[in-house]
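pasting for ref
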Amino acid sequence: MKRLLIVGAGDLGRETFQWARDIEKHAGNKWDVIGFLDDDLHALDKYNKSDRILGTVNDYDPQPSDELVVAIGDPATKTDLYQKLLAKGAVFTTLIHPTVLLPDEYSIGKDVIIGPGSIVSIEVTISDCVIVNTLTVVGHDVIIESGCVISDYCDLMGHCYLEENVFLGSGVQILPSVRVGKNAKVGAGSVAIRRVKADTTVFGNPAKTIYSPQK
């Protein structure tokens, strides 16, 4: 029995569930079962979908026909779960919504989720364990390292570079060739016009540092 297991039964997980259903509508049934792994077995009680939670992350025992994606909006948590499950021998897949526009040449890793209406331009590199949410544009020659979470309506312009575990809030614009450092967060609606340092949080137009770790 082939199963798609979505790690995380929160809001993003429920969206991912729908996107997986959309993939099946477009391409035919790929999985016998689509369900969730979540350590909170009651996470879907209020949606009357508790039966969709097929087990916990801690107790998960990889099966040969299972495919996983991690649908967690916090980059550090997402990466931690990904590494934990990878060490167990879990096999990860990539979910690309059928409405996504893809070029002829691109590179996309495993455990990547790309939501409806997004556009991926030419010569893009997206590493493992990345989320690109709805209606986001990934411009030409963009590089996205592992663990990044990109919210909806973002615009990553040509040659920009996201280092590991970057979080972009909804509606963020990253100008051409701008680099965003590891673990940085760019707040919703912000416009990054220059390099964003690692581990900082920036906000505004133009984006300015509102948090920087103590040295």
